[in-house]
Amino acid sequence: MELRISGTVNDSIVDGPGIRYCVFVQGCPHKCEGCHNPNTHDFNGGRIVDTDDLLKEIKANPLLSGVTFSGGEPFCQAKALAFLGRQIKQENLDIITYTGYTFEELKEKSTDENGYMQLLEVSDFIVDGKFEKEKKSYLLKFKGSSNQRIIDCNKSLENVAIYEVEF
To answer: Up-side HSE of residue 167: CA atoms within 13 Å toward CB?
Structure first.
């Protein structure tokens, strides 16, 4: 399956706990003021990669704690990321997905066609909400602005309530 990405990082320590492989998808409708990845906004930018090639790179790094999907907006390519995510889970790695949408929006707008629920189900955690420049803080761990939440997807999907966590 193909993905349009901006790039990858093989050993990030700033995109979630532990050492993480990060996939930065290309294309974002939010265009948040002050975004630290504005080069990922253009849906026609970046490059096309095969998810099999990404999985090979992920498997080649024995030090990884997990994989982070960031962007751009991962939910604009939810089906392909969910497909990759199911393979990543077989490697016993956790998945964190960053999104400008809220958890509630994703659940409400989820359809079989867009694959939102598939990506939520494969994600262990999401960091949700648009980046808000006026709420930016360097003291926040794995979040850019204080309005964003780190949500345990499994617990939140099972119990209907939203379970926020801190790492």
So the answer is: 20
